[in-house]
Design goal:
- The protein is mainly alpha-helical.
- The protein has 2 domains: about 150 residues, Rossmann fold (3-Layer(aba) Sandwich), CATH 3.40.50.300; about 90 residues, Arc Repressor Mutant, subunit A (Orthogonal Bundle), CATH 1.10.10.
- The chain is built from 15 helices and 2 strands.
- A two-stranded parallel sheet has the order 1-2.
- About 15% of the residues have low confidence.
Length: about 325
């Protein structure tokens, strides 16, 4: 194991070796692409290469993980490895497989990466460029708009919250219509309880993760408004509850305020983690099966089996010839 000084040298050489993977980036772009520890904010103008940096950063995370920005050094690293990596960082020459093994540190699985954009056009461009650079593995990256990513999560896991996956998302106008219907159903004056204001209170309460039955909801209301009335308003009456359960209509206000949504979030998160662990185990097994040493072992076994079969064929042919000779002599 290396001493502290040599560990620092190894980290510097590892970063330099990884940087050689991105020769087309300028120094500032390369600095951003190699940053993997903690949050990172990039401020740049249009056409300055922000998407390019994002794509190369994703590629770095998938191939080398935390290697370019971590001070952690694997225990198996020797001084010979340090000398090799320093030479590789200087010249770019050497055993590529060895360089990747020394630089790789907890590489990220593609499905664990979330790349969010603001428009569908930008998301489409991001997906295309990721596919061009990373190949088929780019299909498992969550590259989409914020809304598309959230809808994807809901389509997959909303049944665990008691709703059908065939839901419809309401915009602001649809949500206002639902609020108006609820006020009318409860014989409440829409002048005293303006639908847009009620929707605003609901949105603020959602931001605070408050349920309709929580006492803290009243803190968010004006002093002139009766909290109990608003609480009744945001709860789901039976007339609205039936179509929601069938998955025909789900309003932003009513869906997000169902008590079971927040109550069952830990269950969904736990199952998502379990699913990720299962996929990670499969990927680890697949990488093991495709590793060079495993392929070499299997090729050696296949060659030995082939030699055995050839010898067996010659042996049986020789036995038949001997039997024929013996039979001829007996005649």
């Amino acid at each position: 194991m290396l001493n502290h000084e040599k560990q620092l040298q190894f980290c510097k050489a590892r970063r330099g070796a990884i940087a050689r993977e991105f020769p087309r980036l300028n120094p500032e772009q390369c600095k951003a692409a190699l940053a993997t520890e903690g949050p990172l904010l990039l401020l740049a103008g249009a056409g300055s290469g922000k998407t390019t940096v994002l794509i190369h950063r994703i590629a770095n995370l998938m191939k080398y993980g935390r290697g370019s920005d971590s001070e952690e050094v694997p225990e198996f690293v020797t001084e010979d490895d340090l000398a090799f990596l320093e030479e590789y960082a200087r010249t770019g020459q050497g055993d590529k497989a060895r360089q990747e093994r020394l630089c790789r540190l907890d590489p990220a699985a593609p499905w664990s990466i979330l790349a969010i954009t603001f428009t569908n056009k930008a998301a489409g461009e991001l997906k295309d460029r990721l596919a061009d650079m990373l190949g088929p593995s780019a299909n498992d990256i969550w590259a989409s708009t914020f809304h598309s990513a959230c809808v994807r999560i809901l389509r997959r896991d909303i049944e665990k919250l008691g709703f059908a996956s065939s839901f419809t998302i309401y915009d602001t106008d649809d949500s206002l219509r639902v609020i108006k219907d609820i006020l009318k159903e409860l014989n409440m004056d829409d002048k005293q309880f303006a639908p847009r204001s009620v929707l605003g209170y609901i949105s603020r309460a959602k931001d605070e993760l408050l349920l309709a039955a929580d006492k803290n909801v009243s803190v968010m209301l004006p002093n002139s408004v009766d909290a109990s009335s608003i609480i009744v308003t945001v709860q789901k009456p039976e007339s609205v509850q039936a179509p929601i359960r069938k998955g025909e209509e789900i309003g932003e206000a009513t869906l997000s305020y169902a008590n079971e949504v927040i109550a069952k979030v830990p269950l969904v998160a736990a199952e998502s983690v379990a699913r990720s662990d299962l996929i990670a185990g499969w990927e680890q097994g697949r990488s093991l099966l495709t590793s060079p040493w495993f392929i070499a072992i299997m090729a050696t076994i296949a060659a030995l089996i082939g030699v055995y079969l050839i010898l067996l064929v010659f042996y049986r042919r020789k036995q038949r010839q001997l039997r024929r000779v013996k039979k001829f002599r007996d005649l």
